[in-house]
Amino acid sequence: MIRTERLVLRPLEAGDATWIATEIARPEVHQWLTSPPCPYGVQEARDFIATFGSKPGVCAIEQNGAGVGVVSIETADRFVADRPALHELGY
To answer: Is 1 exposed, middle or buried (0-12, 13-18, 19+ CB in 10 A)?
Structure first.
């Protein structure tokens, strides 16, 4: 966990599924993402958390106690099998 004056970076938790699904389902967010399915719902968020929640390179971003995003430093092929095994910073 990393805590600053404005933000907290922490591991993903099961309770994050609702706000993650809500945010990714927004067209202005989803249009910039390459791997999430469309439509994206709570079950997809649960699956994401189950797959990546324990990875040290994937963190929830919290501001004032509320989830506001997810950041990852992973190889692209961890999310989509046919992508190169190069590290990417994702938000």
So the answer is: exposed
Cα–Cα distance, 61 to 8 (Å, whole number): 6
Q: Is the pTM of this model over 0.85?
A: no
Q: How many CB atoms lie within 10 A of CB 86?
A: 8
Give me 7's structure tokens.
Answer: 């933000």
- What distance in Å separates the CA atoms of residue 71 and residue 83, rounded to the nearest whole number? 19
Which residue type occupies 50? A
Residue-wise pLDDT tens digits, 58-81? 999 999 999 999 998 877 777 677
What does residue 60 show for φ and ψ, rounded to 5 degrees?
Answer: -80, 145
